[in-house]
Amino acid sequence: MYFSKTPGGERWFVSKMEVKFDSSDQFFEHIKNPGRTYILSTDSNQGQLLFPTPVGKSYICDREIEVKLSSPDTDTTATVFLRMMQLEPFIFKNDEFGPEYHCSSTGAGTYRSETAPLIVGSMLASACLLTIVGYAVYRYFNIEKVSYDTME
């Protein structure tokens, strides 16, 4: 597991999970290429941050969390099931876990990047602004101007 902190330093998360194994082991009876060493990891292109937790707290989850791993070199995939997990990097004072931060009931302990919502919100704001500006331009050129000073 590779741990990182958010840019502000207020949360830690698992940025990457990696598993290395030798396929000649007895556990892999029907594997395609026996005798080869595989390295499987989480997909870094998804922008997925695993187990976001405030700094100084430990992440704890009683539910089963499923993490998909794959290899960019081969078509080999794996799934890691984490059960009854408590996790904390950066333990400084003693060997005990910090205060518990429980996993959420939705999301299974993952945090997605906020890039897509930011882009969609910006596009919506731009569309609203263009609509208002377009209507103002339409009224300026197409609506007959009335001089209220001469009305009696």
Key features?
single chain; 152 residues; alpha+beta; four-stranded antiparallel β-sheet; three-stranded mixed β-sheet; 11 strands; 34% strand
Describe the SSE topology.
Blueprint: E1 2-5, E2 11-16, E3 18-22, E4 37-41, E5 48-54, E6 58-61, E7 65-70, E8 77-82, E9 85-87, E10 100-102, E11 110-112, H1 115-142
Parallel strand pairs: 6-10
Antiparallel strand pairs: 1-2, 2-5, 3-4, 5-11, 6-9, 7-8
Protein name: Lysosome-associated membrane glycoprotein 5
Keywords: Glycoprotein, Membrane, Signal, Transmembrane, Transmembrane helix
Transmembrane segments: 118-138
Structural class by sheet pairing and helices: alpha+beta
Helix content: 10-25%
**How many strand units?**
11
**Rg calc:** 27 Å
Average pLDDT metric? 80
Strand content: 25-35%
- Spatial strand order of the main sheet: 1-2-5-11
The end-to-end distance, rounded to whole angstroms, is 82 Å
Name the shape in a single word.
elongated
Unreliable runs: none
Largest pleated sheet: 4 strands, antiparallel
Number of helices: 1
Helix and strand element order:
EEEEEEEEEEEH
Protein name: Lysosome-associated membrane glycoprotein 5
Keywords: Glycoprotein, Membrane, Signal, Transmembrane, Transmembrane helix
Organism: Rhynocoris fuscipes
InterPro entries: Lysosome-assoc_membr_glycop
